[in-house]
Amino acid sequence: MKARIHVTLKSGVLDPQGKAIESALGHLGFAGVENVRQGKVIELELTGRSREQAEADLQSMCERLLANTVIENYTIDLT
Question: Is the pTM of this model over 0.90?
Answer without folding.
Answer: no
